[in-house]
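*** Protein under study ***
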Amino acid sequence: MKDRIPSITAVLLLILLVAGTWWASDYTLRSIQIDPPRRITHERDSWSDSFVMVLTNPEGIASDRLEGSSMNHFPDTDSYEITDARAVSQKPDTPITVGTSDRAVLDQNGTRIVMTGHAHLHRPAGPDRNALDVRSDQLTLKPDEDLVYTDKPAVVINGHSTLRGTGMRYNNRSRQLIVYSSSDVKISGEDRQPSQDTGPSPKAQP
């Protein structure tokens, strides 16, 4: 019997050790979350210098291009914040437009670009149209719809004519320009000749 005491003691200690280990493990699992919920904060999760994004149409032809000197992605809003932004729309059968600004935010699954800080949209002149320039503190671009709008004060220069107003909307497909509240309109005589460009007005087809 005395010879078995050490063996029995060793077995009991082993049982106590296993039981203690199981209890400690169970206590840890119950007191600490293994996969805590992701903390939603406005902290970037990816970034890049010399950012370039190109969108192609179903035929594989580049239709839109967005670039900037830097880009930061934020997962809480699933948005891209871009500095020195430049957005180019070059869809077939519509005039090319180039939007630039100090900063821009690409969001809504890539369907909206909000350009702020010296925002400028330029449409070069063509055989049947004058050059068009729109300047504002903020311009919103909808690349899929080929649309730009703002509810801020804006200056529109169409050829030799100038319009200043608050709130505007330009559809590059129909080439219709709407200014919701105009305060100053200067129509040049050079833009009064019959053509598809009728000069800026509260509702015009530039």
Notes: The chain has a mean pLDDT of 83. The radius of gyration is 31 Å. The chain has two domains: 1-35, 46-204. Helices lie at 5-31.
